[in-house]
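Whether sequence alone determines local backbone shape is best considered at the level of individual chains. When preparing material for the folding task, we compiled for one chain both its residues and its backbone structure tokens. The sequence in question and its structure tokens are set out directly beneath this paragraph.
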Amino acid sequence: MSLAQVLSTYVNLNLLILIAVMGLGLFSFLIKKSNLRLGSKVELELHYTVMTLILGLTLIQPLIPKKEFFSPPAKVWSAQSIKSFGQDYSAPDKGGYLSLPTPMGTSTLQADQVAVTWALLSFILLIFGGFFIGRDLWSLFKIKRDSFSVRKIGSARVLVSDTISVPFSYWVPGQANIVVPSSFLNRREDFKIAIAHEIQHHRHGDTKWVYVMWGLRLLCIINPLIHLWNRWISEIQEFACDETLVDQNKVESQAYVRCLVEVAQSAFDQKHVPVCATGLTFLVERNLLKRRVERMLSKSSTRIGRSVSVAVGLLLAAVMGVSAFASNGLVQDRRVSLAQAQAMAARVKGADDFPVVVNDLVVKQLNRYIGTPEGREFMKHSLARMENYKAVIGNYLQKYDMPEAIMAVPIIESGYQNLSEEQSKTAMKGAGLWQFVPATARNYGLRVDSQKDERLDVLRITDAAMRYLQSNHLRFKDWHLSVLAYNMGEGAVQKGIDALDSRDAWTLIRNGYEGDRDYLPKLMAAILIMRNPQSVE
């Protein structure tokens, strides 16, 4: 994945968490206000479903088609600006520059530095997380090693330990364990309640989901909502276990309440709570115990609650799906790779008899025009101005039987601006749409003097440009050589052919036989963009 994809996926993950927590919070608030009781088990299933949606959308996000609904706030460019393109240009598979919006304007950072920083932070988080998980798994291993097994319930093994004060359960691949303090052996009823409670954690999948929750907390460590959500789900897990045991009459409610209070007092002595374990009273706040007791004394309307929960789940799924699609380009890589350039060429293959070549030189120029902010603006405005001249030039193309690709020549010559000699930026002071220098203009019958400059007459200069290009094509029998001669002169092209004994235009320019630097690659890039206008949108 590219840096833009990694950053976009990470931002989108946090956005989905924001939508989930806000949506679930609003749902919970409305449920309370409407006096509709929602079963804790159903509520827990809803939270797990939403979390599954988040994970799924995050994993498939790189595969979601990119469609810009708004200008992405962060972009990766091939160079900081078109003016410094030659020095700053980074190949599409290397470097680049990341632009970020700030209160002071746009800040530009080297993409390589951002990528290294991101990789370093990810490595630190991996080490940090690995340390804590490793520590807890080692702690659980020691507890299990020093415990003895008393029974097995389904796939879950019940262990008794002298080293803990609070019952808990945990899962590792191939093992589902319930650990109970040895002091419970003399309290038969409490022993039964503890096992019943912890077995529900396994049945609800809590002991597996705790890893997912922990991983999201580590990954989105700077997002306060994920920590809030983790706490919220942990509470619902306890409510769901309580509800199942009481509603199904698996334990007597008064005895259950007494057991909770007694174990909660012991929980303060538990020195370490493994992050990958769930426990009867790991959450020991007085307010939570009070709410657990209150919920035990009232029945949940689970049938109504489940139907409402399904509706809310579908609504959240729709909102998150649309958000993931719309925000897929929060960070966009504006650079063009060789594969993308070839795809652009494939879409226009066979449009006319002007051969479009895609190579490293063309990809570089595509990155000048698409991969820099000024380049994109130049191309967008040039294509918009081209529409004003399209009909006129199209008529001359038909008149002289010229390929439509020739319409891209004024893009790189003048940006489809009818420039005067004073406005021209070329060293030889060309003018008009086609940037004829005075000598060439006079050769093709145009008047250029202090009283009149017919290079600014769009019809006359377009006719002259067609005749000049056609003349070159009749001489060289090759459109690439023809446009190269249009830029540097027929004599210079012939000199290059004779010196290198090659009629390949690309061989000529790679050996220094060119007028304006990269003229032919720029033209190829302009043709591709002209035929793929969405590339600069």
